[in-house]
Amino acid sequence: MYVTCPTLCSRHTGSRTRGIQRYYRRQERYLECVCEDDAVLADLPDPEAESPDEIAWDDHLTKATLLVNVVMLGLKILAAYWSHSMSIISTVVDSFMDISAGSIIWVTMRSMDKADARDYPTGNNRLENVAVLLVSMVMIFANFMVIYESGNACIENTLDPGVNYFTMGILIFGTAIKTVLYILCRRQKTTPCQVLAQDQLNDMITNVTALLGAYIGHRYWVYADPIGAFCVAGFIIVNWVRTAKEQIPLLIGQSASPELVDRISRIATAHDDRIHAIDMVYAYHMGDKFLVELHVVMDGDLSLRDSHDVSETLQTQIEKLPFVQRCFVHSDYELDGDEHLKKFN
C-alpha cells in the first residue's frame, strides 16, 4: 500500500520546475553570448556599444555627481560641527571617503594608461583591482572607527545631538539632489550610469538613516543617534566587504566559468579544419579580464608555416573577445594533456 503526500509532491514538482526554468534561462543567455561572440569575430558593429549621446550623458552625470559630492561634504561638515551628532558624522566620513576613493581610482587609471609595455608586457590592469581592494580596506577601517567612537560616546555619556532646521535642511537637500541624480542615472542604461545610480541610492539610504537617528536622538531618545551611526557605518562596511571579496579572485587568478570556457572552445573548434581536437583550455582571471591558454591538436605532418598561421589567427580571434586580455595558443600533434612541469592540482 502506497501513501502519497500532496505537500511533498508539490514541493518536489515546484523545485523541479524552477530547476528547468533556470536551465532554459542559462541556455538562452549562452545563445545570446554566442551571437555576441560571432558578431565580434565578424567585426560587426556592437549593437550594445554606447552612442555619442550616451557617452556624453555618462560624462555629464559623472561630473555632476562629483560636484554634488564635494558640495555636500562641505555642508555635512558644517552640519556635523553644529549638531555634534554621531549619525551625521558617519555620513561625513562616508562622503569624504567616497571622494578619496574616486580620486585614488582616477589616479590609478591614469597610471595604467601611462604604463610602459617594456615593464609590463601583459599590461598592468590588475592595478585597478589592487586600488579598489586598498580603498575597501580604508573604508572598512574608517567606519569601524565611527562605530568605536559612537560606542565610546555611549559609555562616557557624552552624547548631545542637537538638530536644528539648518541641519535638517542640509540632509533633506542632499537627499533630494541624490534622488534627482538617481533618477537621471537610472534612465541611462549604460554600465557607468548604473554604477552611479547604485552609489546615489546608497547615499540616499545613509542620509535618511542619519537624519532619522539624529532627529530622534535630539527630540526623544538620545541613544537613537549612535544607533543611527551604527546602522550607517554597518551598511557601508557590508557593502565594502562585498566589494573587497569580489576583487580577491580577480587578483589571484580564479578560473573562468564553464560557460565561458565552452564559448572559447567553440570558437577554437570551428576556427580551421586543420585543428583536429582541443587538448586543453585554460582561462583564468588576470584582473577583470581573462588570460587564455589553448592547446590544439593538428596533423603531425603539417608544415611549421601552416601550423603557425593557424595558431596565430586563432590567437587573434580569441583576443578580439572583450573579456580576453591575452591568449596563448600551443599546437601539438597528440592528446597528451597538460605539459607544464609545475602542476597546481
Automatic annotation (TrEMBL):
Membrane recorded as keyword: yes
Places the protein is found: Membrane
GO MF terms held by the record: monoatomic cation transmembrane transporter activity
Pfam family, one: Cation_efflux
Record carries keyword NADP: no
Membrane topology category: Multi-pass membrane protein
Record domain Cation efflux protein cytoplasmic: where: 257-332
Transmembrane segments: 64-82, 88-109, 130-148, 163-184, 220-241
Record domain Cation efflux protein transmembrane: where: 64-251
Signal sequence, renumbered to the chain: none
Similarity annotation: Belongs to the cation diffusion facilitator (CDF) transporter (TC 2.A.4) family. SLC30A subfamily.
PANTHER family listed in its UniProt record: CATION EFFLUX PROTEIN CYTOPLASMIC DOMAIN-CONTAINING PROTEIN, MITOCHONDRIAL METAL TRANSPORTER 1-RELATED
Protein name: ZT_dimer domain-containing protein
Organism: Panagrellus redivivus
